[in-house]
């Protein structure tokens, strides 16, 4: 009996010393946006290999589906629609990812990168009206219902750009689970944001494969200790040119195997809607807490540090004309991001620093005669 007890103590000590033992629990969400890419040169065009690999390891997938993809020529054979119907029946989720992922304000301008934003034009810094956003969402919902037979309960904003109008329209259509890069919170009295932590596979190569895997494991384990929940983002790697065959799939399999080995029964895989429902009771909605937007506030950008995209959020307690300017460390203006009127409430803007060098930058917001400034770090 003594020898058995001693052996168990030694094994336990070795597990702790080698980093194998842990007591954290984790809720884990896998979100894949842009299903399916328009590129038809890379095959196979299927979500099934990724789905089966994740599912066989206990995971669930939230597919960020651009409704218009279902009627484009690349998917005219109807295979994507059938695969989406099948994936729902197996416990995965379809989240509405805008309508067509194209901004109709700037799509004909040579200087615009119109692939990405859709609810708010970042090229001209113009918000879409409520009727315009309502039409996009209504048309997207109709397409998903006609082609797949479902009405989604969650929404992923194209380009991670929205405004208060977006949240109000989402409420009208009962799209109450929202996913963006900002903090977990109610975006209005109904729509709750479940943030995504990070993405590690956007430009995955054999050279950065292991370092990205190691970084992901460190990040996820830290989140388990700090918050107990983690959202992993991927993009449609199934047809995107430039990826080596199967590299993202191999990476995901290795990540899930490592997480299952580390957390054991203490990891719970959830869809976006399931994760939102599981945690939003811990938060107070805007309607329930009138102090949520009680004053003018500029929030810390996210992610920070960033490369090259980040989201800047601010809150207004009254309708105001807003000026948002970004400076370098020498005090020179590098971007006048916005100069226009906004309604009271919470707002988000996307900033792309692709043409700027690494370094420290300041972003300053002026509204209602007040100015506040914060610091952000660009690391390339």
Descriptive report:
By secondary structure, the protein is α/β, with parallel strands linked by helices. The protein has two domains: 261 residues, Glycoside hydrolase/deacetylase (TIM Barrel, Alpha-Beta Barrel), CATH 3.20.20.370; 82 residues, Immunoglobulin-like. It is 28% helix and 26% strand. Strands 1, 2, 3, 10, 11 and 12 form a six-stranded parallel beta sheet that branches. Strands 6-7-9-8 form a four-stranded mixed beta sheet, covered by helices on one side. The chain has a four-stranded antiparallel beta sheet with strand order 16-15-18-19, with no helix packed on it. Strand 18 and strand 19 form a beta hairpin. Helix 4 packs across helix 5. It is globular.
SSE layout and pairing:
Blueprint: H1 2-17, E1 26-35, H2 48-55, E2 61-65, H3 79-89, E3 93-96, E4 120-121, E5 126-127, H4 130-148, E6 154-155, H5 164-172, E7 177-178, E8 185-186, E9 192-193, E10 198-199, H6 209-226, E11 229-235, H7 247-263, E12 267-270, H8 272-279, E13 297-298, E14 309-316, E15 320-328, E16 333-342, E17 345-352, E18 359-367, E19 370-378
Parallel strand pairs: 1-2, 1-11, 1-12, 2-3, 6-7, 7-9, 10-11
Antiparallel strand pairs: 4-5, 8-9, 13-14, 14-17, 15-16, 15-18, 18-19
């Amino acid at each position: 009996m003594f020898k058995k007890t001693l052996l168990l103590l030694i094994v336990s000590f070795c597990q702790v010393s080698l980093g194998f033992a842990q007591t954290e629990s984790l809720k884990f969400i896998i979100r894949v946006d842009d299903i399916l890419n328009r590129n038809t040169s890379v095959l196979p065009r299927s979500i099934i290999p990724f789905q089966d690999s994740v599912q066989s390891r206990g995971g669930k997938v939230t597919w960020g589906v651009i409704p218009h993809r279902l009627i484009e020529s690349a998917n005219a054979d109807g295979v994507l629609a059938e695969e989406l119907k099948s994936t729902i029946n197996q416990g995965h989720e379809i989240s509405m990812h805008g309508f067509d992922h194209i901004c109709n304000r700037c799509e004909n301008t040579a200087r615009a990168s119109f692939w990405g934003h859709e609810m708010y034009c970042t090229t001209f810094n113009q918000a879409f009206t409520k009727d315009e956003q309502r039409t996009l969402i209504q048309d997207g919902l109709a397409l998903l219902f006609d082609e797949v037979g479902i009405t989604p309960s969650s929404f992923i904003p194209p380009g991670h750009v929205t405004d208060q109008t977006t949240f109000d329209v989402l409420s009208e259509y009962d799209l109450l689970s929202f996913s963006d890069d900002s903090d977990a919170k109610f975006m209005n009295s109904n729509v709750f944001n479940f943030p995504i932590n990070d993405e590690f596979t956007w430009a995955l190569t054999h050279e950065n494969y292991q370092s990205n895997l190691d970084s992901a494991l460190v990040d996820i384990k830290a989140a388990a200790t700090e918050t107990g929940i983690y959202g992993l983002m991927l993009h449609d790697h199934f047809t995107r040119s430039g990826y080596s065959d199967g590299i993202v799939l191999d990476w995901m399999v290795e990540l899930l195997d490592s997480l299952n080995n580390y957390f054991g029964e203490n990891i719970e895989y959830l869809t976006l809607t399931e994760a939102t429902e599981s945690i939003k009771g811990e938060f107070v909605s805007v309607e329930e807490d009138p102090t949520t937007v009680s004053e003018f506030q500029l929030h810390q950008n996210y992610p920070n540090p960033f490369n090259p995209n980040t989201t800047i959020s601010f809150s207004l307690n009254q309708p105001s004309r807003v000026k948002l300017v970004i400076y370098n460390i020498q005090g020179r203006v590098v971007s006048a991001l916005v100069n226009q009127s906004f309604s009271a409430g919470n707002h988000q803007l996307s900033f792309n620093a692709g043409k700027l060098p690494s370094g420290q930058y300041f972003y300053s917001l002026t509204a209602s005669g007040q100015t506040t400034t914060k610091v952000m770090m660009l690391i390339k």
